[in-house]
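Sample intake sheet
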Amino acid sequence: MSRSTIPVSSALTQVRYEIRGRLARRAQELERQGYEIISLNIGNPGVFGFRTPETMRLAMIQNLANAEGYCHQKGIFPAREAVVMQQQERGVDDVSVEDVFIGNGVSELIDLVLRALLEPGDEVLVPSPDYPLWTAAVTLNGGTAVHYPCRPERGFEPDPGEIERLISRRTRAVVVINPNNPTGAVYSRATLEAIARLAEQHRLVVFADEIYDQMTYDDAEFIPMATLVRDTLCGTLSGLSKVYRACGYRVGWAVFSGARERAQGYLQGLELLSSLRLCSNVPGQWAVQTALGGHQSVRELVTPGGRLYQSRQAILDAVAASPWLRLQPPRGAMYSFIGVDEEALPGFDDERFALDLLEQKHVLVAPGVSFNVPYRNHFRITSLPDAATLATVFERIAAQLELEAARSTARGALRLVQ
């Protein structure tokens, strides 16, 4: 190694976050060259014209004078109180403001809650497919992410029996992402109950990532995990980014319920880590009380006639009309995890397809392997664009898949000749 070379930390060698990785960097290069890229790799509502509710903006503006200094390491009292009230309305009665930690988005809190818990070699059960920050944060904090399958043939809902078989003496926690990113699955009460009982039996911490809690479609029912977990610790994570379309405010929260009396050392450690970063973004915290206590405008977006509902329907219709694509209808969140029929397109590779789609059709998607799955025939798109834009997207996807089909036919013909 050259003496002038600065090496990267070995802690990063097993860390991936391809949603903003190589493909996203190439998309930026193409944009600098003058190409217009339709970027569907990130669920960023503001980019697609979704505005943060005006009442939240006003609450933040009117409290700017109170937001110029540091606040308590756990967050301002009105924000934490609003989180408590939401939990109590959902049936989680035994929480107080002392159980709430406000962070710079759920992303920061994922890192903190794992850092306070893990010793080197500890294991955390993480869904596959997953939101890859969970796997990355486990790895960065010295742990091992053990992925439990959420299979397409089960509607991407996990099998509690498969989860139980993965539990070892090193397992410390289980992560539940519901409604799920990337698949849009919304888990049944029976599945969540079974996971809760497993966690209690094996004294595992439950981390419930519920950032899409109010984004459900048709008859899907969201069940808060904290209402089911009683005899172990449950940390519920949510925030303003998605339901309230305020990604840039960087406000998330973790609220702990269940067997907190057995977790005092852990919670004190989490407060220490919160203190070391002084506090989270104060201006954005002033929007929390208004967001959680006011009119929930997301319902107008996810019911028939609403923009998110109509965009989801446009995706379902486009997939149904395709000879190559398959989709378990997303019942929540703002994504579709689309499969490609490998019998129709043998040899399909999600990363190669995503790169070709970007280079040739100027559409950016996230290949399925970005979400820690063992198969190579899926990709994720966000349903945030309007239906007209999505129609254009699927026209380009269809054209690219036609090229893939032609290549596959040519490869097959070549093998016959040989």
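Comment: The chain is about 40% helix and 15% strand. The radius of gyration is 22 Å.
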